[in-house]
Every structure is written in C-alpha cells, then in structure tokens.
Amino acid sequence: MSDPSYIIGTWRSVAHDGEMDKFFTERGIPFPIRKILTLMADHGEVIFEIKNNELVETEVGTFKNTVKEGRPLDGTKVPFVAPDGVKGMTYYEFSDGMIKIIEVVTEDDQVIHEFKQEGDKVIRKISNSKSGTFFTITLARK
User: Fold this and answer.
1) DSSP characters for 67-94?
2) Cα–Cα distance between 66 and 24 in angstroms, integer?
3) Domain tally for the chain?
4) What is the pLDDT of residues 48-58, one digit of tens each?
5) Which domain holds residue 84?
6) In the chain, count of helices (H) and strands (E)?
7) Are strands 66-67 and 54-60 parallel, antiparallel or unpaired?
8) Quick one: which of 24, 63, 119, 124 could link to 137 by a disulfide (CB 3.0–4.6 Å)?
9) What is the DSSP string of 97-139?
C-alpha cells in the first residue's frame, strides 16, 4: 500500500496486550488517568481523518471528544504536549505499509505509535524508546 488510507475512518478498540500500566507509569501518568486509559483500550473509539494534508486523530469521549495535534503528511515536525505536560515535537512517517507517529521529547526519549493493517483490523503498537516497554491495541472498524 502506498498511502495511509487504510486508517481513515472510525475505529473501536477491541483488545489490548502488553505492559500498558508499566508504560504509563514510566511516562508519569497519574494512577486514576492510567486506569481510565486502560478501560478505553478495550472499549474506546478513535477517528482518523486527513484534514489540510495532516493526519488528525480524534478520541471519542462520553462527554467530549479530544482532537490531537495534526501530523503533516510530508513528515514536518510540529510541537506537541505529552499527557505529563512535557513539550516536544511530533511527526508522521509512512513506509512499507506502516504508519508511524513519533513523539520526541529528547533524542533518546521518544514514544512511537506504529499502525499496521492485519486483515480487517489495525494493530496499534505504542512503545517507549527509553525503556523498550510497549503495549498493543487492536482496532476494529466501527
């Protein structure tokens, strides 16, 4: 596949695997928020769109939706603020059928989101480059 169109649309989380709580603990996420994020990993919804030549992700919430910073499809780095309040840069890559969103705090401290199509599902792997800790979320089209 030469473009990321397979990710466009509304998806629901159907399963997660790996060291999610350890990952969030390492990233400084407070306990109550970690628990909410863990619940969302099995039941949450997310929408991916291309707007103004950027990949935009929206987390669908019960009371309000959260729109994340768009990542330009040309790979330009843009500022972002991590859930723990740390500022960094984020950018998008696409190669060999895999979408990557990289959030850079420092060169040796990155969170990498990898999206790979597997049949009618998408596997989202989120990893901490500093420790190697990661978890996966299985997304099914809604």
Assistant:
1) EPPPEETT---EEEE-TTS-EEEEEEEE
2) 19
3) 1
4) 999 999 999 99
5) 5-141
6) 2, 11
7) antiparallel
8) 124
9) TEEEEEEEEETTEEEEEEEEEETTEEEEEEEETTT--EEEEEE
Task: Answer for the pair 69, 32: CB distance below 8 angstroms, yes or no.
Answer: no
Residue type, 101: I
CATH number for 10: 2.40.128.20
40 is written with which tokens? 């969302």
* Identity of residue 33: I
E strand or H helix at 54: strand 54-60
CB 123 within 8 A of CB 132: no
**What does pTM read for this prediction?**
0.89
Per-residue pLDDT of 2-58, as tens digits, reads 478 899 999 999 999 999 999 999 998 899 988 888 887 888 899 999 999 999 999
Could you report the per-residue pLDDT of 86-130, keeping only the tens digit for each? 899 999 999 888 899 999 988 889 999 999 999 999 999 999 999
